[in-house]
């Protein structure tokens, strides 16, 4: 059987797509190989910044150098935004935009099954979609315009519902339950590359969770492009009532025996009272507590009201602060709070940047993801950048200031857990760490951990933290082998 390699770039939701493609190929009997040995290499791209585009192009060129016989299939956001650009790269045999990502495994298998001939036989039996915008013929994928392209703006074949999510290479796999976004922030290309918001039905999600638990899974991460908007496009669930995202989370926790559920990034205004209340109910230390991770990631982008307005963000700084205050009240100081912060948005003044610094200082962040603004073609931010760019040297200075502040906040947060007992899940340990007799783990509240001794992956353990190392990881030893079991029928009473 032909061998495949899937390389993922970008956010959790994008990686969930790549994991789903891999599982589809495995289910069909194909082997996963390293890049140099694969017959087909699938490159799952990101396009949120110009740097993400450059990284994807560099990987494609490197793949073609080390494995010139490989047939390269490019998918993801970059493939949707600029398919012709990617089709012109040497070695690319097919470009599959997000609009047709559900067909990516079948397209890749068609390539693999066709050997060296890139004629029409490669696509025999492939679903006919009638929406190919580019490349009427079949080519060799040698950079001469012969790559076949699947991409349009209807996104009819975009939702790649995953094969059963299982604990394996990913101890804590992502289950993508929502796709697309309609917020239209001025800096963001996502509405172009992923379309409007679409949701996986609740019944499918619950079935996935039950299958994960039955396979021995312990921690599952719910992910999406705009996760808090899950369900708004679905018809009424029961008695004509539409199920909210918070209602879905409650169903998972009450109707399944999943031992730990983690929520990925959720927009500030989607943290409503019901969802915050679940953090108290299922994230605390009482019966059923500890099953909803005490970890919240709320994209901030800027602490300046004027900048947020130019970004067309749907909250003001004081709204954001109120949501954080509500979460801290609900969860307590053990909450690990994360955020995305963008530096150098067009027209950002020294005063506006100082507002961001002040807000970051004031709030109890455990970590920050920092990004310089990157103008994306087709967005309002592209035009704003042409009118009022922030000098690169200024952006770099501001990034350095925020990095220093973020490191200080992170260390302060983590040092507060030295001497404490925490719950954690063990991960697949890198060889270097295992060689030192330690095990990689992640605490329930999203802190990196090194456990003294070797422990198999996918174990829930209780540990006592003794120190923090120079890289910021907590050092701990086990005090309890496994965490308590939960029975779904009892929990729902």
Explain the overall architecture.
- The protein is α/β, with parallel strands linked by helices.
- The protein folds into three domains: 148 residues, Rossmann fold, CATH 3.40.50.12160; 242 residues, Alpha-Beta Horseshoe (pyruvate-formate lyase- activating enzyme), CATH 3.80.30.20; 60 residues, Nucleic acid-binding proteins (OB fold (Dihydrolipoamide Acetyltransferase, E2P)).
- The chain is built from 16 helices and 18 strands.
- The protein has a six-stranded parallel β-sheet, sandwiched between helices.
- Helix 9 packs parallel to helix 11 and helix 12 packs parallel to helix 14.
- The longest helix is centred in the last third of the chain and has 24 residues.
- 44% of the residues are buried.
- The C terminus is likely disordered.
SSE layout:
Layout: E1 3-8, H1 12-27, E2 31-32, E3 40-45, H2 50-66, E4 71-76, H3 77-81, H4 83-87, E5 92-97, H5 104-113, E6 148-150, E7 174-179, H6 190-194, E8 198-199, H7 202-214, E9 219-224, H8 245-255, E10 260-263, H9 273-283, E11 295-297, H10 305-311, H11 317-331, E12 336-343, H12 350-362, E13 365-372, H13 380-387, H14 392-415, E14 421-426, H15 431-435, E15 438-443, E16 448-452, E17 460-468, E18 474-480, H16 488-491
Parallel strand pairs: 1-2, 1-3, 3-4, 4-5, 5-6, 7-9, 9-10, 11-12, 12-13, 16-18
Antiparallel strand pairs: 7-8, 14-15, 14-17, 15-16, 17-18
């Amino acid at each position: 059987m032909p061998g495949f390699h899937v390389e993922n770039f970008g956010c959790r939701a994008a990686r969930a797509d790549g994991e789903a493609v891999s599982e589809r190929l495995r289910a069909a009997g194909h082997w996963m190989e390293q890049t140099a040995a694969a017959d087909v290499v699938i490159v799952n791209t990101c396009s949120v910044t110009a740097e993400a585009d450059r990284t994807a192009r560099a990987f494609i060129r490197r793949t073609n150098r080390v494995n010139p016989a490989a047939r390269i299939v490019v998918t993801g956001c970059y493939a949707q935004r600029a398919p012709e650009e990617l089709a012109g790269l040497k070695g690319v045999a097919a470009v599959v935009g997000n609009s047709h990502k559900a067909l990516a495994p079948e397209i890749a298998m068609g390539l693999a099954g066709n050997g060296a001939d890139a004629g029409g036989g490669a696509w025999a039996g492939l679903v006919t979609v009638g929406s190919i915008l580019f490349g009427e013929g079949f080519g060799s994928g040698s950079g001469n315009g012969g790559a076949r392209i699947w991409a349009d703006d209807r996104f009819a074949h975009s939702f790649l519902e995953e094969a059963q999510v299982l604990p394996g290479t990913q101890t804590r796999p992502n289950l993508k339950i929502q796709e697309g976004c309609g917020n239209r922030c001025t800096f963001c290309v996502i509405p172009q590359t992923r379309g409007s918001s679409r949701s996986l039905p609740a019944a499918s999600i619950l079935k996935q969770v039950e299958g994960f638990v039955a396979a021995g899974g312990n921690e599952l991460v719910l992910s999406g492009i705009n996760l808090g908007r899950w369900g708004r496009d679905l018809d009424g669930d029961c008695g004509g009532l539409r199920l909210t995202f918070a209602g879905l989370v409650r169903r998972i926790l009450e109707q399944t025996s999943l031992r730990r559920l983690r929520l990925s990034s959720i927009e500030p205004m989607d943290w409503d009272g019901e969802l915050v209340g679940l953090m108290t109910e299922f994230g605390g230390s009482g019966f059923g507590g500890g099953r909803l991770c005490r970890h919240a990631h709320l994209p901030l982008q800027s602490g300046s009201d004027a900048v947020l307005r130019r970004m067309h963000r749907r909250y003001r700084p004081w709204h954001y602060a109120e949501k954080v205050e509500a979460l801290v009240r609900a969860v307590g100081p053990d909450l690990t709070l994360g955020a995305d912060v963008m530096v150098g948005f067009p027209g950002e003044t020294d005063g506006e940047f100082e507002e961001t610094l002040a807000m970051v200082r004031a709030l109890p962040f455990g970590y920050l993801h920092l990004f310089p603004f990157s103008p994306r073609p087709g967005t309002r931010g592209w035009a704003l950048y042409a009118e009022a760019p922030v000098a690169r040297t200024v952006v770099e200075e501001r990034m350095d200031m925020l990095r220093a502040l973020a490191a200080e906040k992170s260390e302060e947060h983590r040092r507060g857990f030295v001497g404490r007992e925490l719950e954690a899940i063990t991960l697949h340990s890198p060889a270097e760490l295992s060689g030192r007799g330690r095990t990689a783990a992640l605490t329930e509240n999203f802190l990196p951990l090194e456990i003294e001794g070797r422990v198999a992956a996918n174990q829930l353990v209780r540990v006592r933290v003794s120190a923090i190392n120079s890289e910021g990881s907590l050092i701990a030893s086990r005090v309890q082998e496994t965490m308590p079991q939960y029975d779904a029928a009892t929990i729902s009473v």
